[in-house]
Each structure stands twice: as C-alpha cells, then as structure tokens.
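Input sequence (274 aa), recorded before submission:
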Amino acid sequence: IAVIRPKTGRVLAMAGIAASGPQPPGSTFKIITLAGALQSGIVSPASSYPVQTATTLSGVKLANAGGESCGGSLANSFAHSCNSVFAPIGAKLGKRRLVRYSEAFGFNAEPRLPNEKASTIAHDLRDDLAVGSAAIGQERDLATAVQMASVGATIANRGVRMRPRVVSSERGGRRRVVSRKVAGQVRDMMLGVVRGGTGNAAALPGVEVAGKTGTAELRPTHGGPIDPKNTDAWFVAFAPAYDPQVAVAVMLVGAGQGGATAAPVAREMLAAAL
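Predicted structure, token format:
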C-alpha cells in the first residue's frame, strides 16, 4: 500500500512491498493508456467501440478478463475495464508514444525512495499484440504500488506529476504529463469506475472517489479454473475527486480480482486519510 499527497508528491505512508516489489500492474495501467490516447487525439470522450468478448492483434485473440462482452462508449469501456477496447487503443497509440507517456508518468526512472526498485516498461515491444498487451498492464510491465499511486496522483494534480518524495524539504521533480483538460477527462472516467463500474467497493459515503481496478495475470488464466493465486489484485484511487487530498495504490499479491479485494482496502485507506 502507498499513500501520496498529489499536490506535493509527499509519500504519507508505505506498507509491505510498496516500493520494493514491482508486479504486473494489470488494468490500473489503463489510466496511462487512456491519458496518452486522449492527449494524442486518437480517442475522445465521444468515441465508441463494438461490444465484444475479445479482439485480435497480430493474428492472436486477446480476450476480456472474464470472457465477458463489453464496449460501447469510451467511458463505459474504461469503467468496465474492457481489454477488447484498450489493447487496440494501445496498439494505435503505438510503441513510441506508449513508452513515452509511461516514462512521463514515472516508468523506467531511477529509483529515489528508500529500498525502491524501478517500475519498467519494455522498449522492444515487437508488434501490435505486444504493444496492446503492455497497454493493459501485462506483457513485461512491472510497477510498484508507490509508482501507481503516483500515476493516480498525477491525474489528481491536473496532469502535473510531482516526483514521490519522503523528505518534505526535497525540491524538484515537477513535470506536466498531460493537459489539465485531459486529466479532467480521465478523472471523470475514473469516477465512473467507482460509481457504476468494477470499483464500486471503493465508494465512500459523501466523498467522490476516482479509481481504477486492476487484476494482473501472473500466469495465463483464460478458460482455466478460477484460482485467486493466479492474479494480483490492484486498486488506484484519489479523493475527494474535485479537490484531491490523497492518492492511494493497493497491490495484493495472489489475491484475486482488484475490485473484490483491493478496492475495499483502498476505501479503508481513503477513509483513514480523510
């Protein structure tokens, strides 16, 4: 678990392997893919997509997490975490732009926090399938909880990333990643995740919570028996959505679905922090 102050980058709390245990980020990475696609103009809030169970990239079928049908508006596709929509968006964004936006959000950077290990995305994504898989937080993507808390904090801070720090006097590390307009669009879609999507277990009475679930495959799971140990559970959130005070990331190793196990923990963290 990692908790960050969006406006300053100050790390308020870390627990477990928040900085030292990078794992596949799963669909929490779609925050970056969505932001990059909006900023690049290849999607807009008015975009819509086919409702389907899977997509095909580089001749290979890539299914939605549970084989479910989803799609429709961009907001609905994000709220329900449609791989069949976001993998092709990632492929259209392309390797160079996907890596560039990921690095602007903090990937492939030199670790600066105590015991921190780097969060990484590969540069040698060889085809549309690899790029699309990386865009949904799989392929060889690895991220720490503190890195994904920073991703959420960047959206919360209107598109400006404050490099995470534990010493309050440390200066520097301010970077605009996406425009204020795009950050607002992503925030609104993250609100939809909690209001009526995969992250409703993170909802707090009287508080607008913006969030994103992630269920990261540690080994192929499609078509096999359901075993929570096959996936890491993630949730990234910030609140209050229109005046963010804290951003949190929860990553639970081998704990099943993000919406079922990580989102309730994030709700507890937000309640305690606020």
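Checked by second reader. The mean pLDDT is 95.
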